[in-house]
Amino acid sequence: MTPQDLVVRMLPPFGGWLALAALALPGGSPLRGAAVMLFLAAGPGAAAVRICAPALGARPAEGPVERRDADFARHSDLLERLMLVLFLSIGAVMLAATVLIATHTFSAQRVLLTLTLLTTCAAFCPPLRASPTPSTTPSTPKGSAP
User: Fold this and answer.
1) How far is residue 15 from each of residues 5, 11, 67, 94, 106, measured CA to CA in Å?
2) Higher pLDDT among residues 98 and 52, named by residue
3) pLDDT (tens digit, 9 = 90+) per residue, 104-140?
4) How far apart are CA 73 and CA 55, in angstroms?
5) How many angstroms separate the CA atoms of 48 and 119, rounded?
6) Model pLDDT for residues 39-55, shown as the tens digit of each residue
7) How far is CA 44 from CA 102, 108, 119, 120, in A?
């Protein structure tokens, strides 16, 4: 692992710890709100997408029949990952908040701490391996003779 890979891997957890540190700022501080919102919108999802990146990139995007854009697959994959980061982060925030509400321990600091710890754990997880592409040769169903 190169130093650049390590920096990219540790950016989401660093954002979470930075957001937790920003809670020491006054309540109406725009810097506090920006740090927390940026982490909650992208941090947990970015850590999860980094784990799944090889599996996501195993099969390229299929473009329309008539291709006008030569970089369709690259742009499509980038948009897919950005949307996954956003929606996985929002889902993680909602799930953590729901669990804390159900256990009667909800507070914004606890949600932020929970997601920061989960993001830190996800940063240490190895990436998933890409599954092999399906073969184009027809196979016989299990239990039948060729």
Assistant:
1) 16, 6, 39, 19, 22
2) 98
3) 999 999 999 999 999 999 999 888 777 666 655 556 6
4) 15
5) 8
6) 999 999 999 999 888 77
7) 21, 16, 5, 9
The 10s digit of each residue's pLDDT in 74-83 is: 777 888 889 9
Give the integer Cα–Cα distance in Å for 116 and 123: 10
Structure tokens at 76: 């499509």
Cα–Cα dist 123/8, whole Å = 10
Task: Give the 3-state secondary structure of the chain.
Answer: CCHHHHHHHHHHHHHHHHHHHHCCCCCCCHHHHHHHHHHHHHHHHHHHHHHHHHHHCCCCCCCCCCCCCCCHHHHHHHHHHHHHHHHHHHHHHHHHHHHHHHCCCCCHHHHHHHHHHHHHHHHHCCCCCCCCCCCCCCCCCCCCCC
Q: What is the pLDDT of residue 9?
A: 87
